[in-house]
Structure formats: C-alpha cells, structure tokens
Amino acid sequence: xxxxxxxxxxxxxxxxxxxxxxxxxxxxxxxxxxxxxxxxxxxxxxxxxxxxxxxxxxxxxxxxxxxxxxxxxxxxxxxxxxxxxxxxxxxxxxxxxxxxxxxxxxxxxxxxxxxxxxxxxxxxxxxxxxxxxxxxxxxxxxxxxxxxxxxxxxxxxxxxxxxxxxxxxxxxxxxxxxxxxxxxxxxxxxxxxxxxxxxxxxxxxxxxxxxxxxxxxxxxxxxxxxxxxxxxxxxxxxxxxxx
Length: 243
Known about the structure:
Largest sheet: 6 strands, antiparallel, barrel
Number of helices: 5
Order of helices and strands: EHEEEEEEEHEEHEHEEEEH
Oligomer: single chain
Distance between the termini: 55 Å
Mean pLDDT: 95
Radius of gyration: 19 Å
Structural class: alpha+beta
C-alpha cells in the first residue's frame, strides 16, 4: 500500500482504487485502498477523518502493515474513489506533533530527560518526562522553543541505513527494529517517529505550555501549539475580561 502521507504530508485529496470492503459489527465497513493519504492512529497522533467518495471516513487503523479505513457506507472493490481529508484537523495535528518534538528535544538536550509518555488529545497535548523541572526552567525552555520557531528551521525526515543509525544519538521510547524513520530539527531534536509534521518550524506558529504537575518520578506537561494555542489564548482573554 502506498502511504501518501509520508511522500507528502500536505496532500489534501487523492484518488485510489478500492481493494476490499468488509462489513463490520454495527453497520460500518473496513475499506482497504491501494494508496492513501489518511494517517492511521499511531505514535501518539490520532487518525485522520474525511470522506472517501460518498462515504464518511470515521476512523483509520493499521494492522500488520495494512491500513483499514472505517466508513459508514459500502465501497465497491475495483472502484476508483476520491479521498478528501479533514485538512484543518490534520494540519493542527501536524503543528502539535512538531511542537512536541521541538520541546521534548530541547528538554532532552539540556537536562537529559526522556519523553516517556505522549498523548495528543482534543483539548491539549500532554507529555510525561522522567525528571523534575522548575517553573523557571520551563519558562526558559518555552522561550527557546519559540525562538527556534521564529528562525523557521527545516524539519526533515530520513531513513538511515542500520550502520548509520547505530551512530545517531536519536531519541526513542522503545527499541526499534527494521526501517527507522528519523525526524530532525537542527539544534532542536533528533527522534524516531512515525507521525506527520510540518515542513518548517515557523509553521508551528507558537508553543505555549499551559500546565505542569508532578507525575510518578517526573512531571507531566500540558501544551498547545499553533491555532489551538491562539484559540486558547482568546478564550482565556475573554474570561479575564469578564472577571
């Protein structure tokens, strides 16, 4: 299966041939295509939504290397359909995911802490680190991350050979086998990742840390990036004005 979201994460629509369509419990269908731009849930990033022909795509999952699109209506095998992504949702996740990489990379660079948990929710991103930071350190990290956004640095992906990978000081939550995809922000991060990202740090817009609590032996940090951070600021400004 051709994964268009890796070839070009900015693909908003595409054409694909339906290879199979299986009815599931609850009246939904699992559709397999020959190519797709719909990102399946994985690596802390939620799946894409959108349409496939006249069908609504309500979930996307990958099992054993095959991507299954959950739809609300039957899609006939052999038909060529147009897939259209909910682009606002996808682009927001690209901003959030790239911002998480930048901040996690800087924390690892300066303090050696690892990102041991990551969740990209509808309301905020949460990241768990295995070490303690002071409010003053967090403030400085936020300023540095935003300075790197202003520099509009490139965010690149590579697929190093095993012998090259062995010498790269990249971050990873677990031991990896097979082909490894590396995301790099110069001076900011070098990390194994399967998610989608913006092309340059400037597209992240802004990183705003909105909370931090002690969690297990480290901390849990909450943050927002890009449009989500702007909307959150607007909401809180209205609350402050009302008070």
